[in-house]
Design brief:
This protein folds into 2 domains: 40 residues; 68 residues, no CATH class. Helix content is 41%, strand content 19%. The protein contains 5 helices and 5 strands; from the N terminus they run αααβαββαββ. The strands form 2 sheets. Strands 1-2-5 form a 3-stranded mixed sheet. The protein has a two-stranded antiparallel sheet with strand order 3-4. Strand 1, helix 4 and strand 2 form a beta-alpha-beta unit. The chain starts with 6 loop residues before the first helix and ends with a strand. This is F-box domain-containing protein. Pfam families: F-box-like.
Length: 109
Amino acid sequence: MAPKLPPEILLMITSLADTATLRSLRLTSRAICASATQLLFRTITLFDRDDSCNAVESIMRHPSLRGLVRKIYLQTVEQDYVSEIQFCESRSPWIPKMGIVVFFWINAP
């Protein structure tokens, strides 16, 4: 049996992981799942699409996940991928369209 690390240490370790890795870490053990879940749901982004709104609503209805959310980004900026020729000419693969990004802080319960 592996030695148990304090939750603070597990949180420090998992904070170094990217989103995809955090999703995978949630499946490894209960202790790591708790740290990874805390980090995954600390900040969420809401896009102006139905599927995104439904996902955020599900998170906010979930009894344990809703307490983890500290920031919500409202993202209304659309970006289109451009062709390779446009990429070489503009030096940027993304051409932003008009939109707004709103940032919300959520107070801890």
